[in-house]
Design a protein that fits this description.
Shape: globular
Helix content: 10-25%
Oligomer: single chain
Number of helices: 4
CATH class of the largest domain: Alpha Beta
Order of helices and strands: EEHEEHEEEEEEHEEEHEEEE
CATH superfamily of the largest domain: Diaminopimelate Epimerase, Chain A, domain 1
Number of domains: 2
Length: 259
């Protein structure tokens, strides 16, 4: 049977989206999702999302990594799904929706989606790095000359190290620029470098503020290989609140696929 899909991208982080409010795609298996995300034998994407109904919310976000496994929160994916909800006329310019890490508020203004992320209260200091959960677990390492840094090799090594092998972790390499930060990410579940990672960008900005004692209200510009994002937050008493990830979400094309 054929089903209509929508291909979205948020700063190069791309996703396959389905409207599953009628529960027509509840049969999807891990292998089917993996096949759909395959860039040679399927549609090709970093992940797949289902937009579903949920009482008390405008919609529910269900997210799967490219390996077919249901995953933790995806920031760029969340922003794309908000734009998709507007496309479907479920929402106008604001929304409250449910994701795996809880309730989220988002708003759309001038073709940019601002997504409220979870509060961050715990940051762990590692050898030459920091780790934190911004909806997904992230490892943050500050580097120089990031354009020449071996992101895939080093990211894969850290992600598959004894400390992170079982649950996995997203590995972010961050360089300070005069205009903000540049972030490159090796993503678990994709098992490769992606052009952008929303929760990774969020985690990098928070880690930078933590390391440099940037308290109170802050807004940090972040560049990725796929484009520019912005992260804002309020940092007081060792707690990051009112965390927002802002950037574009673009419908690339739609089509039908036999599943």
């Amino acid at each position: 049977m054929k089903y209509t899909f929508y291909k979205y991208q948020g700063t190069g982080n791309d996703f396959i989206l389905f409207d599953n409010r009628q529960q027509e795609l509840d049969f999807l298996t891990k292998n089917q999702i993996k096949s759909l995300c395959d860039r040679r034998f399927g549609i090709g994407a970093d992940g797949l999302m289902l937009l579903e109904n949920h009482p008390g919310f405008d919609f529910k976000m269900v997210y799967y990594n490219a390996d077919g496994g249901e995953s933790s929160m995806c920031g760029n994916g969340g922003r794309c799904l908000v734009d998709f909800a507007k496309f479907l006329q479920i929402i106008d310019s604001e929304t409250n929706f449910l994701a795996v890490d809880g309730a989220h508020y988002a708003k759309i203004s001038e073709n940019l989606v601002s997504l409220k992320m979870i509060d961050v209260t715990e940051i762990n200091t590692l050898t030459n790095a920091l780790s934190l959960n911004s909806g997904s677990p992230h490892y943050i390492q500050f580097v120089n000359e990031i354009n020449h840094f071996p992101v895939f090799a080093e990211g894969k090594k850290i992600r598959n190290s004894a400390a992170f092998m079982e649950e996995g972790i997203n590995v972010n390499f961050v360089e300070k620029l005069s205009s903000g930060l540049f972030v490159r990410t090796y993503e678990r579940g994709v098992e490769d470098e992606t052009l952008s990672c929303g929760t990774g960008v969020t985690a990098a900005a928070i880690a930078y503020a933590y390391a440099n004692h940037l308290t109170n209200e802050q807004s940090i510009s972040v560049e990725t290989l796929g484009g520019k994002l912005a992260v804002s937050f309020n940092y007081m008493e060792n707690k990051f609140t009112d965390v927002y990830l802002k950037g574009p979400a673009v419908l690339v094309y739609s089509g039908s696929v036999a599943i």
